[in-house]
């Protein structure tokens, strides 16, 4: 089977995973409140059950992300996570007591930890310019599950029979239904999912094949040596040796790096592929690489994106938790009405994702982010005014409620897609499994959100007021960090490898971008250029924002960044 067919089947399977997660959410959430009431659970148990699902996802996400980073595989992780989903949903079906139901959501939540590995896989398997579109499509699959999930509830609420000692009714049927769906998905992953090689590796493989064909047609040994040196050079100048985003490289380190390359060149060793002997400089580079992983998540733009992940999900889950008690209190909604409400909300979210899918082709992610945050602010302020103390007739109160939910559902896709895509671009590709860190921050929000919303349904001013304050704080953070929310443009994994420095290059030939628009550039590696006459005008400085092309020594993405700023 060719690569393109494998890729299509793999991406289709990923879409099914997110589709089923959306179906599970839409099938269980409308009924879990009354299910707990039949088990004589107190009111706060609703928040506990929803938080338990997120808690296990919070703990499992980084572990599975680390596993994915180490092994560069995701299929085994997905199969393991599906087993937890199957067990958890069958426990939900059995019921018995409120504690069994709580444990079932705890186990099922472990299955959501596969998401960090999947996002890391998508990052490695897609081009940077296509990533926002791919993420939007994947998230839209989950929202499609939210859309069609309530339709299943229309039929599941009619169930009323026994399977041995187990009762199948409108409350337990969702667990049985989802258990069967996850078994079906397990078979799909086994037969239709492949761990595809990263994009860069495929480019390297293609280059190697071309070199082999050239060798067959009679290239000389000297040309062969040049090919070997060309293939080895990116390994010797990789981001892992010099450091990753956020680590500082001085001019002296650039010289050390150059001298290391010279000492390990083919002319100084028996084999060009021989591993270099460890030196104090290598130890320094290794320590810089280790420490930069922690520093990576303390940079301004990363902190803003993690804060956005926490605040938006905290507000969303708090509102979702209070929705079913509010509809029961003010409108006497039951399972069918709640399912229709979630179905209509899914329609709005799907429309939002389609809009983001189109908009991401015309504007940058930070613009999409700002639009979504605007919708979220309007939604929360509306809820503070009308949800805390509804007034008017039944029809007017229902209209107030619908508008608030509509605005919240509309803003979610903008923020979700933008912050996921930006996070993948401002962090190093070699740690994309650390999407688990981002998802864990979101998991913490989905733990605290239901607890906050479930415990304050009778104190709406306090509950919604804190949510508004958090959104205002995030808006201020976005305003101050807006210029930093761009993809770093430098000679790293996203760009072509720079030309090697000549022997006459000095420390002055290491250009360390550090001012103006070039603050976006990570200082992990310097950009060497030996022929300084390539700069056509002294006025084309980094501060001016109008730097002119510097020849083949600078990669195309970097030139586009300089000219665009």
UniProtKB/TrEMBL annotation:
GO terms for cellular component: membrane. Residues 200-224, 248-287, 533-552 are annotated as: Disordered. Residues 262-275 have a biased composition (Low complexity). Residues 10-483 form the Major facilitator superfamily (MFS) profile domain. SUPFAM superfamilies: MFS general substrate transporter. It is a multi-pass membrane protein. GO terms for molecular function: transmembrane transporter activity. Residues 200-220 have a biased composition (Basic and acidic residues). It is found in: Membrane. Keywords: Membrane, Transmembrane, Transmembrane helix. This is Major facilitator superfamily (MFS) profile domain-containing protein. The chain crosses the membrane at residues 42-65, 77-96, 102-122, 134-156, 176-194, 302-319, 339-360, 367-389, 401-424, 436-454, 460-480. It comes from Gambusia affinis. PANTHER family: INNER MEMBRANE TRANSPORT PROTEIN YAJR, MAJOR FACILITATOR SUPERFAMILY DOMAIN-CONTAINING PROTEIN 8-LIKE. The keyword Transmembrane applies.
